[in-house]
């Protein structure tokens, strides 16, 4: 579902992807996958991305068609680790437009204007934990657990209407 109002912000629910929550002490032990080591940094290898959420935590995303290949890569890790597929747990919204920072400011306490393009962070929107990635200057992806998605979407839609009305 996509919605756009006069405020110039489009909200689109994105197609499902393969998501893996990876915990690992040494990212260099993952064959064939480049993991960033700075918290908030994101690496891309074709259509696969890895976002460093903590000193030993990454969120790996890939198209559903790459699921088997990603799982095979992770199966090659010889060091102690945890790799949990969380694909069905989360929904991602693309938020795009000139007022996207204003839209996100209605529920997120972070100064997102300072977030560099290509980076990401775990944060909150209202009371729900989310992962935000900044795709371009005026485009973010907001990933939220499915159980909170309707709450977050309702708040985004309300904020979108308020921005369009100039409130």
Give a short overview:
By secondary structure, the chain is α+β, with helices and mostly antiparallel strands.
Q: Which helices and strands, and how do they pair?
A:
Blueprint: E1 2-4, E2 10-13, E3 18-24, E4 42-45, E5 48-54, E6 57-62, H1 67-75, E7 81-85, E8 90-96, H2 100-105, E9 120-125, E10 128-136, E11 139-145, H3 146-165
Antiparallel strand pairs: 1-2, 2-8, 3-6, 3-7, 4-5, 5-6, 8-11, 9-10, 10-11
Folded structure, characterized:
It is a single chain. The chain has 167 residues and is an alpha+beta fold. It has 2 domains: 90 residues, Probable tRNA modification gtpase trme, domain 1 (Gyrase A, domain 2, 2-Layer Sandwich), CATH 3.30.1360.120; 71 residues, Heterotetrameric sarcosine oxidase (Alpha-Beta Plaits). Helix content is 21%, strand content 39%. The protein has 3 helices and 11 strands, in the order E-E-E-E-E-E-H-E-E-H-E-E-E-H. The chain has a 6-stranded antiparallel β-sheet, with helices on one face.
């Amino acid at each position: 579902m996509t919605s756009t109002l006069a405020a110039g912000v489009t909200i689109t629910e994105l197609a499902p992807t393969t998501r893996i929550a990876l915990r690992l002490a040494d990212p260099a032990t993952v064959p064939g996958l480049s993991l960033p080591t700075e918290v908030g940094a994101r690496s891309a290898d074709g259509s696969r991305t890895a976002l460093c959420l903590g000193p030993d935590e990454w969120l790996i995303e890939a198209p559903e068609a790459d699921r088997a290949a990603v799982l095979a890569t992770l199966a090659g890790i010889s060091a102690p680790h945890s790799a949990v597929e969380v694909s069905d747990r989360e929904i991602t919204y693309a938020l795009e437009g000139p007022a996207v920072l204003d839209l996100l400011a209605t529920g997120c306490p972070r100064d997102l204007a300072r977030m560099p393009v290509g980076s990401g962070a775990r944060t909150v929107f209202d009371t729900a934990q989310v992962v935000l990635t900044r795709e371009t200057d005026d485009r973010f992806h907001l990933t939220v657990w499915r159980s909170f998605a309707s709450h977050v979407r309702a708040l985004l839609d309300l904020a979108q209407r308020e921005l369009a009305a100039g409130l």
